[in-house]
Specification:
This protein is of the alpha/beta class. The chain folds into three domains: 4-135 and 303-338, NAD(P)-binding Rossmann-like Domain (Rossmann fold, 3-Layer(aba) Sandwich), CATH 3.40.50.720; 140-299, Dihydrodipicolinate Reductase, domain 2 (2-Layer Sandwich), CATH 3.30.360.10; 352-432, ACT domain (Alpha-Beta Plaits, 2-Layer Sandwich), CATH 3.30.70. It has helices at residues 13-24, 26-33, 47-54, 64-68, 85-95, 105-122, 138-145, 160-172, 176-185, 194-197, 200-214, 233-241, 303-320, 366-376, 407-417; strands spanning 4-9, 37-43, 59-61, 75-78, 99-102, 126-127, 151-157, 224-225, 244-255, 258-269, 281-288, 292-299, 351-361, 381-386, 395-402, 405-406, 423-432.
Length: 437
């Protein structure tokens, strides 16, 4: 049977892994797909690298636009990244009637609605398993494997860099900057780690998962995003004493008022499987009404793990290549005309539990003043740690866990607490998720 011809845009780490795995497992992949899948042309500015990786097995060009216009190319794999020229290339490929496979979560989170509409109009597929959690097949699981379920919530460790940093801070007692430097030295963090440590990368991914789970348009601009750069090792230690671990989570929940879409450091009970995912690994919990909680764990990045997802998409597209577009799996799990315009909730309206750490003067009545403010805002306390002041010091730490309450109530309480004469400096506030049903 005639092979499927693939044009590969970008042959860096992931592109090289894709070429290697596709060649190594060619026979197995052909048996699964029903016909050979071959990379016939590679576009990369580094022509010498491309020649070295491919060993002369395919045509090399610097001109990516020539690939998306090549009549002999059936599927374009976009691994350039970013949202500039990558967007142009993807839309041009679609306009030319080519299927697209991409690992570009930023592109899809920000412009996916436009891209999927263009693909739908043209009758081609855009596959993106590798855009979320690397080698973990979470997109297929949510979109197809859990199709019988009403998805209630998703919570995931979906950025390996931040998970590695938090693991080092907990296990070795490192401060944030030291742990980040170690992550960079080991290749887990980029020279400019901003997208990772400030939560943007995770927000791109949870935006995509929210659309798949709830059948809503992609709404990255509505996501609440907090990173870990201001996280203090002290809070990791207190969380441990209280029976919790701190992870950077992407969270999306269906509520009566809308959809929660948020990324932030989160306390998780140490008994939860998610709390015990360490190092650079990823893990995602999906709660469905029929199946209950399901956990997906694995490598969220790297050459061959990501290549695994890219090639799985190539196999899917190859299988469905000649199928009636109306009978293909919808890009965002739900039929395009069945998406609902459910808005993400503003953070003020989110309900969860909270961890509060205060520096207080060791004076009689300090705790009573603070608890009175919390009671006035209808916030109930679940647990308290109050340390004795160190010798010669007038201040000490007061740590509280609250029961579930509205974010706006916590914000109002914190503003009042910080105005108390017995409180020194700002209140540290982290959110807490039980992640039970």
């Amino acid at each position: 049977m005639k092979p499927i011809n693939v044009g590969l845009l970008g042959i860096g780490t992931v592109g090289g892994g894709t070429f290697t795995v596709l060649k190594r497992n060619e026979e197995e992949i052909t048996r699964r797909a029903g016909r050979p899948i071959r990379i016939t042309v590679v576009a990369d500015k580094n022509v010498e690298l491309a020649k070295k990786v491919t060993g002369g097995a395919c045509r090399i060009t610097e001109d990516a636009f020539s690939v998306v216009s090549d009549p002999d190319v059936d599927i374009v794999v976009e691994l350039i990244g970013g949202t500039g020229v990558a967007k142009e290339l993807v839309l041009k490929a679609i306009a030319n009637g080519k299927h697209v496979v991409t690992a570009n979560k930023a592109l899809l989170a920000m412009y996916g609605n436009e891209i999927f509409k263009a693909a739908q109009d043209k009758g081609v597929m855009v596959a993106f398993e590798a855009a979320v959690a690397g080698g973990i097949p979470i997109v297929k699981a949510v979109r197809e494997g859990l199709a019988a379920n009403r998805i209630e919530w998703i919570a995931g460790i979906i950025n390996g860099t931040t998970n590695f940093i938090l693991s080092e801070m907990r296990d070795k007692g490192l401060d944030f900057n030291t742990a980040l430097q170690q992550a960079q030295e080991l290749g887990y963090a980029e020279a400019d780690p901003t997208f990772d440590i400030e939560g943007v990368d995770a927000a791109h991914k949870i935006t995509i998962l929210a659309s798949l789970a709830f059948g809503i348009p992609l709404q990255f601009d509505k996501a609440h995003i907090e990173g870990i750069s201001r996280l203090d090792a002290t809070d990791i230690q207190y969380a441990e004493q209280l029976g919790y671990r701190i992870k950077l989570l992407g969270i999306t929940k269906r509520t009566n008022g809308g959809v929660e879409l948020r990324v932030h450091p989160t306390l998780i009970p140490e008994k939860r499987l998610l709390a015990n995912v360490d190092g650079a690994m990823n893990a995602i919990v999906v709660q469905g009404d029929a199946v209950g909680p399901t956990l997906y764990y694995g490598k969220g990045a790297g050459a061959e793990p990501t290549a695994s997802s890219i090639i799985a998409d190539l196999v899917d597209v190859t299988r469905m290549h000649t199928a009636d577009p109306e009978n293909r799996v919808p890009h965002l799990a739900f039929q395009p005309n069945q998406l609902v315009d459910l808005k993400p909730l503003p953070m003020d309206e989110v309900q969860t539990c909270y961890y509060l750490r205060l520096r207080v003067f060791d004076k009689q009545g300090a705790l009573a003043d603070i608890t009175r403010i919390l009671a006035d805002e209808q916030i109930s306390i679940d647990a308290v740690i109050q340390k004795e002041p160190a010798a010669g010091e007038a201040q000490t730490d007061l740590v509280m866990l609250t029961h579930k309450t509205l974010e706006k109530r916590v914000n109002a309480a914190i503003a009042k607490i910080e105005g108390l004469p017995v409180v020194a400096g700002q209140v540290t506030r982290l959110r807490l998720e039980e992640l039970g049903k």
